[in-house]
Specification:
Helix content is 59%, strand content 6%. It contains 40 helices and 18 strands.
Length: 956
């Protein structure tokens, strides 16, 4: 690509300044004067090139000689360097210096337009390939010296490394991170070394060493940021998995998005019998042997997610993720490969460029559009490389400073930056047009005559009607007084537009949308039309400045109908949609809106959402967690409103959702701390890592009892069982106990920080040993001592509802043993009854807020707290006789256990259970209506009377 011939004055001055600094170095070679102009250009265009030359001045010779050489033998060059390495410290230094020198050469060729972008993509990919594989080979050999060789059917087993994404496609961008998946052939034990270990241990140690060698930052920098989240089960899965488990996972649990991701999954190791076996495992999962139209709906959902992310995050200057960017081009090609690659074996390619050419050859893509797609895709990749080569930083965002703008326009061959932007817009417009054509919505809407309701709605919004005209127009729906108030609401809303941030495009969209809204409001019968309109306009006011959401509702009238229905049913939902407009995206597909995620699928759905977030972007991780919670909670509420879920299932969904979030928050917090301080080393368990933390979370209260409601906080207690106070393994080591304390702090920070999407959950830690004065996280031995010698009766009552919700297997077993031991203590019944009743009376006096007309379902006499205290009293009184009473933590199943053991009559238990479920159902209804107390009904009066009677008979 020919560049603009004249370097901007400021860049020319920068190049001259850096040349002068180079010429002062002792290593300066006078022969370089002959290439002064070219060197100055390179210095002006890239801070990275300049910095590497200062570190390695002799690199200049590599730049100015043979710079047209396209085929670089990175394998031979790195082998020569690495052959002299004798320790991991030397290995790390060798890898980083080799990477930096070679990348400086590639940047030089790119920015001076000495090679095509296709060649650059191949070079960056092959360089990465060699760095990964040769580092792995060196570490493998080192490990076998101690542990011996993991033998298999075809000889020594290798750690097979699957390079994902652009690395797999041999189209890696300049400053990319690398997505890897590790696997090995079969289980067994190593042989021939000083110490034999299981293959799983061997390959886990190798994988950890390889990640450290590539990922850790040293004085020489970093080789690559390593991302392992695409492996089976993500961060919660094993770091490395043997073939059998690998195949089982993908055949039994593999998702369509994983098929899409593995499309570019290339084995980086040299071919061997083991790699052939792995290919045979992966191919049937990725490609179906027929035209795979079953994947279309999944791809349509992926496409909608892409559009949704662009809309939510406002990615206008991002050439990868923005509209018409690199990601959309990739999606076009990979979707066609996924659908047709099973039958057309020639489409089973890793390279996007090769795949497009094959799609053209097979006449799946028209030749003109296909060739134009290649040209525009490569143009964007060239821009991406430039942006990253300026400073060796992973970015796809257009520059916001004049220096980089000048650099970009110069390298891309434009006289002015606006000319470059115009060409960029043309490029993105073409790609986006092809993206929109792919997997379109077949439900074309035919033109229909306008109904009387639609015409009335148009007139109401567009015409300046007086009060009698409005009353006449709305006569079939509203009484005259209500029609006047309806008109006033529309007038007030129209006036508010004058002070809003809505632009002309948004105003035009709103003018088309408002008649549709009015039709939906008038046709909906769930609530008086005045209140319906008021609630929906509350949401509209929140999105006036966000035209994309107005356009979403206009383009998806089903979503508009869902909005009206949900707002009619619940002011709580209205408030959620007003505060968090991103939830409007969930209204597009009623099939998913009213069908919440399967209980066991919350972790994998959350993992999928977080895969789109960089592992070190804590701010975006926190936003994504909140988005996920809000959207899933909305689906649960929608199903609740529609009557699709019974009360216990609603609580189950809210509880499983919370548990999935807790697990991911802990992983994020651990990774953040480990990045800074390294990981703890325990005297009793050795080094700890992401999969083996020696850390656990106990859930109390509603979380412990699987009884969460909308807006519930989480009662948590943190424990660990790491012995000793050895230092962590990082560059800024701290004592292990301090690590766990900081881990607890970080977890609370992620949960409770108020972002634009609010808090994730409010966390209540008062049930930890010694309450608010106690440590945030305590050693399990301390937790045992406290429960056995210091805890009050009410704390043992709380233990009835305590449940292990996250942590290591050993802590799980130890906690359940302790819990049963405490609950099954023999207690003197009358003393126990007195203590429980006294605590209940204190709560009632301080917390009950009911009146003669309104029932405080939780705290009034005969309410939820009475039932809970009866159950807890009976558990503590009789568990020593029947340990099965302690099996469950939710009140319904505990009552069933109490009946089975004869601790309560079946009639009393049934009455308590009926009342409890009725109260909880009422509580959910109240939450959706933003109300705190229930109006008395005959049913509530009966339940209250029955519970009070049972309380008197058992607790008096």
């Amino acid at each position: 690509m020919p560049s603009s011939s004249v370097l901007a004055t400021s860049l020319d001055a920068l190049g001259q300044k850096r040349w002068d600094e180079l010429s002062q170095l002792a290593e300066f070679n006078p022969a370089w004067h002959a290439h002064q102009s070219t060197i100055k250009h390179g210095f002006a265009l890239s801070d990275f090139i300049y910095q590497q030359i200062l570190k390695y001045p002799k690199l200049v010779d590599n730049l100015i000689k043979d710079h047209n050489s396209a085929n670089v033998d990175y394998c031979r060059l790195l082998t020569d360097e690495i052959s002299a390495v004798t320790s991991e410290v030397e290995l790390n230094r060798c890898l980083r210096q080799f990477r930096n020198k070679q990348m400086a050469i590639i940047a030089w060729r790119d920015l001076l337009n000495l090679q095509q972008i296709e060649q650059s993509l191949l070079q960056v990919s092959e360089l990465a390939n060699q760095l990964i594989v040769q580092a792995n080979d060196w570490l493998y050999k080192k490990l076998t010296e101690r542990y011996g060789v993991p033998q298999g059917e075809f000889g020594p087993q290798p750690l097979l490394i699957i390079g994902m994404g652009k690395l797999g496609g041999r189209e890696l961008n300049f400053s990319s991170d690398i997505d890897l998946i590790f696997t090995y052939p079969e289980q067994g034990e190593t042989s021939g070394g000083r110490q034999s270990i299981e293959h799983q241990q061997f390959f886990t140690k190798l994988a950890q060493s390889l990640i450290n060698s590539l990922h850790n930052i040293t004085a020489d920098g970093q080789v690559y940021r390593v991302d392992m989240r695409l492996r089976p089960l993500g961060d919660s899965g094993p770091l490395v998995m043997q073939f059998g488990a690998f195949e089982d996972y993908y055949q039994e649990q593999g998702r369509d998005w994983e098929r899409y991701a593995l499309l570019k999954g290339r084995i980086l190791n040299p071919p061997c019998a083991y790699s052939d076996e792995l290919q045979h495992i992966l191919k049937p999962f990725i490609y179906r042997r027929y035209l795979d139209f079953s994947a279309i709906e999944s791809l349509r959902n992926m496409k909608a997610l892409i559009q949704q992310e662009v809309r939510r995050r406002g990615l206008v200057d991002n050439i990868k993720l923005g509209q018409g960017g690199i990601r959309e081009a990739e999606f076009i090609v990979q979707s066609l490969q996924l659908i047709r690659g099973g039958r057309e074996l020639s489409l089973q390619l890793y390279s996007l460029l090769a795949a497009v050419k094959q799609l053209i050859s097979l006449e799946i893509l028209p030749e003109n559009e296909g060739n134009k797609l290649i040209v525009n895709y490569l143009w964007l990749r060239k821009v991406e490389h430039c942006l990253q080569q300026f400073a060796d930083k992973q970015t796809q965002v257009l520059p916001d400073n004049d220096q980089d703008k000048l650099r970009l326009q110069y390298v891309m061959g434009f006289s002015t930056y606006p000319e470059f932007l115009a060409e960029l817009q043309n490029c993105c417009d073409f790609i986006h047009s092809q993206f929109l054509l792919l997997i379109g919505d077949d439900s074309a809407k035919e033109d229909e005559p306008i109904s009387a309701t639609e015409q009335a709605a148009i007139d109401l919004w567009q015409l300046d009607l007086d009060e009698p005209e409005c009353q006449n127009l709305l006569a079939q729906w509203l009484a005259p007084e209500d029609a006047s108030k309806f008109r006033e609401q529309l007038i007030d809303f129209s006036k508010s537009l004058k002070t809003s941030r809505i632009g002309q495009r948004g105003y035009n969209t709103l003018n088309s949308l408002m008649p549709l809204l009015i039709v939906n409001v008038l046709n909906c019968t769930e609530l008086p039309a005045l209140e319906r309109l008021q609630r929906v306009l509350q949401v509209f006011k929140a999105i006036l400045g966000r035209t994309a959401y107005l356009e979403l509702l206009l383009a998806n009238q089903g979503a508009l109908k869902q909005l009206v229905n949900l707002c009619s049913a619940s002011p709580w939902v209205t408030e959620q949609l007003s505060r968090f407009p991103l939830l409007l995206d969930e209204l597009i597909n009623p099939a998913t809106l009213y069908n919440p995620t399967e209980l066991r699928e919350y972790p994998s759905e959350l993992r999928r959402a977080l895969l789109r977030v960089e592992a070190d972007d804590l701010e975006l991780q926190m936003e994504t967690l909140r988005q996920f919670k809000l959207s899933q909670q909305l689906k649960i509420a929608a199903a609740d409103i529609a009557g699709a879920l019974p009360i216990m299932k609603i609580s189950d969904h809210l509880t499983f959702l919370a548990e999935a979030i807790v697990a991911h928050v802990i992983d994020i917090a651990w990774q953040q701390l480990a990045e800074k301080h390294g990981e703890p080393h325990c005297e009793n368990a050795g080094p700890r890592d992401l999969q083996n933390k020696s850390f656990a979370v106990l859930g109390f209260g509603k979380l412990g009892g699987w009884e969460l409601g909308y807006g519930s906080d989480l009662d948590l207690v943190f424990i660990h069982n790491c012995e000793g106070n050895q230092l962590t393994s990082g560059v800024k080591p701290i004592e292990s106990s301090q690590f766990y304390f900081k881990l607890a702090q970080r977890i609370l920070h992620i949960f409770t920080t108020k972002t634009g999407l609010g808090m994730l959950y409010d966390i209540d830690m008062r049930l930890r040993p010694a309450g608010q004065s106690g440590l945030l996280v305590c050693h399990f031995n301390g937790f045992v001592t406290y429960q056995e010698t210091e805890a009050w009766t009410w704390e043992h009552q709380a233990l009835c509802r305590a449940r292990f919700i996250y942590g290591d297997k050993q802590l799980f077993s130890d906690f359940n043993t302790l819990r049963l031991s405490i609950l099954s203590r023999q207690r003197e019944p009358s003393e126990l009854r007195t203590q429980v009743v006294e605590m209940r009376e204190k709560m009632r006096q301080h917390l009950a807020k009911g009146t003669a007309e309104l029932f405080d379902l939780k705290q009034d006499s005969g309410g939820i707290a009475d039932i809970e205290f009866i159950v807890q009293y009976l558990t503590l009184a009789y568990c020593h006789e029947a340990h099965s009473i302690a099996t469950w933590t939710d009140n319904v199943r505990v009552l069933e256990s109490l009946v089975e053991t004869g601790s309560i009559s079946s009639d009393d238990a049934q009455q308590l259970k009926n009342a409890y479920l009725s109260y909880r159902n009422q509580n959910h209804r109240l939450s959706l209506q933003n109300r705190s107390y229930a109006s008395y009904t005959a049913e509530l009066q009966q339940h209250k009377s029955q519970v009070s009677d049972i309380w008197r008979r058992i607790m008096s």
